[in-house]
Amino acid sequence: MTDWTSLLNRRQMLAFSGAALATAAVGPTFHVARADDGFLEIAAGPAKKKLLSEGTAEADLWLFGGSLLGPEIRVTVGERVKVRLVNNLEEPTSIHWHGIRIQNDMDGVSGLTQEAVAPGESFEYDFVAPDAGTYWYHAHNRSWNQVGRGLYGALIVEEVVPVFDREHDLTVVIDDWRILEDGNLDQQTFGSLMDWSHAGRLGNFLTINGVSDPEFRLSRGEKYRLRLINVANARVMPLNLATEKTKVLAYDGQSLPEPEEGPPAEFFLGPAQRVDVMVEADEDFSLNFVARDDSFPFARFNVTDSDGSQGHIVWKPAISNLPEPDLETANTYSLEMTGGAMGQMGEMIYNGKVLERSDMRETGQLWAFNGVANLAKEPFFSVQKGETVVIDLTNNTAFEHAMHTHGHHFRIVEREGAEADESAYWRDTFLILPRQRVKIAFVADNPGKWLFHCHMLEHAAAGMNTWFEVV
Ligand SMILES: [Cu+2]
Question: Which domains does the chain have, with CATH numbers?
Fold first, then answer.
């Protein structure tokens, strides 16, 4: 039916759009009950939801709190986040709080910072959210399987003095799903080595906040913050926000000192990346998916006259005080990315042993960092707390990747062949093009064992995973 490796285009979307839900998703509000001990209880479990409308099958999903787009967690910066994860799945799970500069034992990486939570068991996450911004949470055990089935939600850390009131602060969670013509999730292709060795699991159906082609209603002349979050397993979203009056407010949860021009007419949001955009609602506009031959809208923002009740909005961002990397004294670590389809494999170590080509199907290991697939006993590097680290990456594969550091934000200090200087921004996930070389720098100030991996979840599972230690 569908060529999974091709870009989505209007024709593919049209196969489903006649059956799309006409539901408006206007700033979804979630109510999560806090238990007596102050914990929000969020259960991970199977659930049936319609992705398509009447006459089609319900999709078999795995969801947090039973809702398609897990409960939105909103806290104020500096506040404790207390979540009790209850595992109602038939396999172990955990939650990672993406982009939060968190204490290590709360980072939720099963096998590195905690044991995965067994079926029927629970785990209490309790941490402080140190930076105001747009974050998200997702399952971090067999993520390629669990996130792809719907185990994710938004984590919004609000400023102490609100910059936008709640009505003008919209979360826009973008996902693509691989669904069958009857509307169910394509479950058979989870774990497909074709996906793992190529661009990852790409879908054929886009949702925003769990809804296809939703409509947001805005009031004319008012300013809104759109918090765009890409939660797709592997798809880099080529986007266009079809309106004139926009400014970029933040990347990956970290506010810019001043709103900047942008985003450009076509911009890319990699898996796990976020961008906060301020829009002034002038006329109706849409968020478009930019396809090679034909772009199409997949969220509408309809503007009507204001009833005059607008909240006052002041730009007074909560700028985080992240420690500035000192490039003079930095420790530099080189990382060569290899493997995948159309790539050179070379010798690859997995679990301390040289992997033969014939083992690849069985182990699913297809990519390597410095010749090592997945987590080794020894860290990629170990540094003293407070030292500056430069990671010098060379992508010797035929694919683009979305590299993510746990526990730390970094600056992109060098990108081969790039005209734009990105070094002014803090990020927790960056895209690296095929054959490109990129250097990132950060102060390793957060003690513990931290993952550094590709956020294309199939690539991570198939080897693009390593860890570093801050002591
Ligand atoms: Cu990758």
Answer: 10-304 (2.60.40.420), 327-470 (2.60.40.420)
